[in-house]
Each structure stands twice: as C-alpha cells, then as structure tokens.
Design a protein that fits this description.
It is an enzyme of class 2 (transferase). This is DNA-directed RNA polymerase subunit omega. Promotes RNA polymerase assembly. Latches the N- and C-terminal regions of the beta' subunit thereby facilitating its interaction with the beta and alpha subunits. InterPro entries: DNA-dir_RNA_pol_omega (IPR003716), Pol_omega/Rpo6/RPB6 (IPR006110), RPB6/omega-like_sf (IPR036161). The longest helix has 18 residues, at 23-40. The chain is elongated, with a radius of gyration of 23 Å. 53% of the residues lie in helices and 0% in strands. α2 (23-40) crosses α3. It is mostly helical and 96 residues long. The chain has one domain: Eukaryotic RPB6 RNA polymerase subunit.
C-alpha cells in the first residue's frame, strides 16, 4: 500500500480545489523535487526513508512545498488574424 495515497496527493488539503490536474503533473512535480533533493540534500520533512522520491512525495503530502502552474500557451494566430494584421500594416504604410 502506498502511503500517502495518490488520491490524497492529488487533492491536497482541499478536495474541492485539487492541487494537481492529473497524475502526470503530480509525477512531474515529485520528480523535479526529487532532483532538487539529490542536488542540494535539503529536505523539509522528516521521513523514514532517505530516498529522494519518497521524501519529495512526503513533502507534497504535508504541503511543505508549492508549485506554480505554467500558463497555457497562447493559441496560434488564425489565417484571418494574420491577413488583417498585414492589411493594417499595408494601410499604415500607404497613409504615411
């Protein structure tokens, strides 16, 4: 049995507003934190294990660390938007 459970890790302290959108984002966050622990040797929790991934998971479960979500990439410009942009530039050149 995994302790803490994946469900607890995903929800955090507030089930209405989960900390992670998917299991994938949870795994990425734990892996990044585990790499930091390997490099620095600094952990923010007491854990029976000294394995970096286990320590990282315990830190996440205890809300000892926080993560920023990346902003979604802006949508690519549509052909209409590009055409309007070029037409506007052309009008500005002719007006000068």
């Amino acid at each position: 049995m995994i302790d803490p459970s994946v469900k607890k890790l995903m929800e955090g302290s507030n089930p209405e507003n989960p900390r992670f959108e998917s299991r994938y984002s949870l795994v990425i966050a734990a892996a990044k934190r585990a790499r930091e622990i390997c490099k620095t040797g600094v952990s923010f929790t007491e854990c029976k294990s000294n394995k970096p991934v286990t320590v990282a998971v315990n830190e996440i479960a205890e809300n000892k660390i926080s993560f920023k979500k990346k902003a979604p990439k802006s949508e690519a410009m549509s052909m209409d938007m590009l055409l309007n942009m070029y037409l506007e530039e052309d009008r500005n050149k002719k007006a000068q």
